[in-house]
Description:
The complex is a heterodimer. Chain A is mainly α. Chain A is 64% helix and 12% strand.
Amino acid sequence: MGRVHFYLKERIEDVKRRVLYESYEAMKLPPWERVAITWVVLFTFWLLVAGWGDAVHLLIAAAVTLLIAVIMRDMLTEDIRGRGHLLVKSLHIFLFVVPQYLFIMAFRLIESNLRVVRNVILLDITPGIVKIEADLYSDTGLTILANSITLTPGTLTLDVEKKLGKAYLYVHWINVETLDGERAGRIIKGDLEEWLKKIFW
Amino acid sequence: MIEFVLLAFGLFIMLFGALGLVRFPDVYTRLHATSKCDTGGAMSILLALAVSVNAPLLIRLKFVLLAFLIALINPMLSHAIARGAYKRGIKPKVVVDMYGGGNP
């Protein structure tokens, strides 16, 4: 690659970003799948909060939640990308990915609680704020990643910044082990990002 | 049996979370103590209630739903408090601060 003019380089970057955006747009779920996912979530929430009633009650609940799901179908499912059949995909997610995630997060939470107990007793802290790069870009994925980082031992997310097609997280770390961005990212994020990348983009 | 273990664990964790709120030096490290310990302690107490309460299944599921909502909301609130404190100008006592740009 020889010398490339600056405006040409800018143009190439622009086209690359456009291709990435279009490919993600093409992987979007069709509308009826979005309606179905939103309807199932809303109906489960209704059943949990209101309780099981008679048939008329359930029928009204189904109708109202279906109406809300048709109107608000883009709100929950905007950031879910992927191909394949809906039932197979959702069964795979709810039978394998989500229980694995919950199991690992429960043990991480217990470990972080015990580490806070040790820090409170010994006060052996060297706090610092480091900047790591996240491999996800969608809003929902970044939110879940930041919340998981807050619940894993010794770290607390301060801010999320999106710049030039990349997302950065500012993390308050209670025992700074390294200042290098990549090594810090590997230590802080661990395997969480791999699981999140199976669902979000 | 398991509800006593969960209750004792929750009380222990909540006690040390409150102690950390007093002992840690600045806002951000105190937020470490409150966010993690309150999430873990409240979740384990709620799960103990869900196991041990003498009620139909729906009430127990509501306790599980409360635990899930706490796990969802608590880190978000601590993140909002930490960011608001930083934007307000409260300096953290740290060895490296990449958020403000450079070392203190």
